[in-house]
Structures are given as structure tokens and as C-alpha cells.
Amino acid sequence: MAHTTLGITGATGRIGGAVSRRLEERGVAHRLLVRSPHRVASHVAAANGLLDAATMDFADPDGAAESMAGLDTVFLVSASESADRKQQQLAMVEALSRAGVRRVVYTSFAAPAPDATFTFARTHYATEQAIERAGLEYTFLRDNFYLDVFPDFVSADRVLRGPAGDGRVAAVARADVVDAALAVLLDPRGHERAAYTLTGPSALTLDEMARIMTRVTGQDHRYEPETLEQARASRAGYDPEPWQMEGWLSTYTAIASGELSRVTNDVQMLTGHPPRSLEDVLRGA
Ligand SMILES: NC(=O)c1ccc[n+]([C@@H]2O[C@H](COP(=O)([O-])OP(=O)(O)OC[C@H]3O[C@@H](n4cnc5c(N)ncnc54)[C@H](OP(=O)(O)O)[C@@H]3O)[C@@H](O)[C@H]2O)c1
């Protein structure tokens, strides 16, 4: 095993993977806490002792506690959404404590609250509360929606459809979340017991997003607001479980509610550069 006191979860994913690569570039040793260590085995082998890997699955907190033993700090990327994500994440907070981890940097969500309109944000609230109660040192990165996901919401006929009304969303680029995570992991001073709300440079309506997509791609995009009933009906064909359907719909109703419209200076403050815009993300900046 590498001599390291830093663990990175979600390292096979986009945020955790990018944070890990950036740490590696800087020669910072760390442990990849992943569901399937064999997927990172050749990478670990090529890293000349800078990296090691251990199994971490939110569904197996005891195994995760063993894998995290000896670590001082863990970058905890929230698990993929599931019916029991809340229970899994709360169990993982206990596992962090049991493992003797002192500090956690957690990818939370903007405006977390027990009654947040975006149903998945309620899990983030509960997880933050559990981390505080456990007495862990923490830094919460409360990410707004990723700007990067909105192009994925566009249908084949280039329409953004959803019950978002004319609400605004201060979505943030994944790359800025990575930059912010790196900043607080590399220099924890001043970030103890802190919560940062990571947003883009402005709050956009989905109509404005569609116009920007049209401008940047040269292909016509448009936003078509749906009623809640229309939205439910248009997604029913995917046959989602109820919790999944509510998560999907509340992505849009949370935008309509205005809960996700607050623009902050936190990306600039943490990273030293202005947040990337939707144009930047679409152009791959
Ligand atoms: N703010 C937003 O708009 C937004 C959008 C999407 C997601 N998110 C949240 O942000 C997180 C990170 O985003 P991302 O873009 O990096 O996602 P991603 O590319 O899908 O990566 C997710 C990572 O988490 C790992 N993971 C998921 N469930 C796990 C579990 N039960 N136990 C252990 N590891 C697990 C995955 O491992 P495997 O490779 O083994 O699957 C993967 O490494 C997501 O997991 C999700 O909670 C936020």
C-alpha cells in the first residue's frame, strides 16, 4: 500500500476521477476508494507507489471502514441516486468515524433542506447533519446542478422539456467543482466547518439555456415548459420507480421554485478564477 492519509471516493467517476488525476499530477499520494479496485489496478500499478486502491461501496459500510483505516481525510463523493441512498450515506458517515477519519470533504447540493423541492437534496441535508453530529471536521461543497447535465436533458428533437416554468438555475461546471475540491483538499486552512455553494456565473432560465445551445452548436434548440402532469406522462414510458420519477420531476420544479437561483462568489474565492459559463462547458473549456 502507498503511504497516504488521503482517500478519494468516486474515483472511477467524473468528479472523483478528475480530482484524483489532478492530485496525481501534483505528486499527492492518495487511496482510490472504489467499488471495483480491479478497474483501477493498472493505473495504480503505473503510479509508482503514489496511489493505492481499496474497496469502498456505500452498500458495505463495514468493508469501507476497513478500507479507510489510517486515512486522515476523505473526499466523499455522494453515491448515485437510489431508493436507499440516504440510509447508505448515513451508514457511511458512521463508517468514516469508526475508521478514525478526521476530516471529510463532501459533495453536497445547493440549498440542502429537509423539505427541499429537489428530493435528492434532502439526502444531502441529512448527510451534512450526520457529518456534523459525528464531530468530523468537514468542508461541504454544495454544488448546484452541473451545467454539463443540461445538454443531456435535450431530446433528440433538440427540446428541453420540463416543469421548470421560467425559473432560474445557477448551475455550475463540473470542472469548477473539481477545481474547488482540489483547492480545499490541498490547503485545508480556513475551510474547517465551512460550507460553500458552488454556482456558475449567472442564473439562467431553461429558455436562455436553449438559446445559448442554439448559438454555440449552430443547431436550433428550444425550451418547452411542461405542466407537472405532462412531465409525469412524458417520462412514464421509462417506467421509473416512484422515488426516481419524483427526483426527475423535482429537478425542474426546484428550478421553477427559485431555490436554485442564488449566484455565489464561492468558485472564484476558492479557485482564484471566475466560474465557467454554459458557453464554456459547451465549447469544452
Ligand atoms: N449536481 C448535479 O447536477 C449532479 C448530477 C449528477 C450527479 N450528481 C451527484 O454527484 C456525484 C458525482 O458526480 P459525477 O459526475 O462524478 O458522477 P459519476 O461520473 O456518475 O461518478 C459517480 C462515482 O460514484 C461512484 N459510486 C456511485 N454509487 C456508489 C456506491 N453506492 N458506492 C460506491 N461508489 C459509488 C461511482 O462508482 P462506479 O464507477 O463503481 O459506478 C463513480 O465512481 C454523483 O455520484 C451524484 O451523487 C450531481
From TrEMBL:
Checking Pfam families in the record gives:
NmrA
**Family matches, as InterPro entries:** Ergot_Alk_Oxidoreductase (IPR051604), NAD(P)-bd_dom_sf (IPR036291), NmrA-like (IPR008030)
Ranges of residues in domain NmrA-like? 5-224
Q: How is this protein named in the record?
A: Uncharacterized conserved protein YbjT, contains NAD(P)-binding and DUF2867 domains
